[in-house]
Amino acid sequence: MIRRPPRSTLSSSSAASDVYKRQVYRAHVLSSKDNAEKLKEKIVNNGFPAFVESFGDKGNLHAIYVGPFLSENDIVTNMDLIKSISESNNGEVSRWKL
Question: Measured between alpha carbons, how far is 82 from 40 in angstroms, rounded to an integer?
Fold first, then answer.
């Protein structure tokens, strides 16, 4: 059974300067935009914020990001659950680009 994570990944009371320190987890990169959107919805439906970002020469690759999180530690704390939901063990933590 998959547990829902606490919704504490983003706090409305965070200082404005903290927005530049937030982290995301790239859970997957897919060539199908439809499949990327489906995976994003699965992640969102399990309680995490997520988004898709297209890239590549023709925008034909689609990265699924989980977050943003307030810190890398927040990602690490939820890592097993994120990996289970996204069905991927090859993710990467990076700074969130605004």
Answer: 11
d(CA 94, CA 26): 8
At 90 the pLDDT is 86
How sure is the predictor about 94, in pLDDT bands with cuts at 50, 70 and 90? confident
Residue type, 69: F
Q: CA 40 to CA 88: how far, in whole Å?
A: 13
The model's confidence at residue 71, banded by pLDDT at 50, 70 and 90, is confident
DSSP string, 1-55: -PPPPPS-SS-TTS-GGGGGG-EEEEEEEES-HHHHHHHHHHHHHTT--EEEEEE
Q: Which residue's structure tokens are 């859970």?
A: 27
User: Which distant-in-sequence residues (6+ apart) come within 8 Å of 77 by Cβ?
Assistant: none
